[in-house]
Amino acid sequence: MTTSKVADDGQVTIPKLVLDTAGLVPGSEVAFRNATDGSVVIERVSEAKPLDPDRFEKVRGIAGRGPSTDEIMAELRGD
After folding, report:
1. For 56-67, what is the HEC assignment?
2. CA separation for the pair 43, 33 (Å, rounded)
3. Whose CB among 28, 35, 77, 78 lies 3.0–4.6 Å from 48's, allowing a Cys bridge?
4. pTM of the model
């Protein structure tokens, strides 16, 4: 049995074994229900959408090159 403590704000870290067993990934929705024996059951409600690995490619380079480290240091020194 794995255990976790409830934080002051009510949050609980779900142990990795439980995450893996339930198939939970970041963004998964879960539901809690009371079982007839008085225990609480956590269930996965929906599959999380996998992160798009190309999501950063869409915006890469739009901010321009920017100053070099030497240029930034010269500006900070007042050169």
Report:
1. CCCCCCCCCCCC
2. 8
3. 28
4. 0.49
Percent of the chain with pLDDT over 70: 91
Report d(CA 12, CA 6) in Å as an integer.
5
- Of the candidates 43, 15, 40, 16, the one whose C-alpha atom is nearest the C-alpha of residue 29 is 43
Task: Average the pLDDT over 30-39 and give the result.
Answer: 93
- Residues 6 or more apart from 34 whose CB is under 8 A from it? 40, 41
The tokens describing 13, both together, are 């870290």
Radius of gyration of the chain (CA): 23
Task: Using the Cα atoms of residue 66, residue 70, residue 75 and residue 79 in order, give the sign of their dihedral.
Answer: negative
Which run of H or E residues covers position 19? helix 16-22
Comparing C-alpha atoms, which of 22, 2, 21, 23 is closest to residue 12?
2
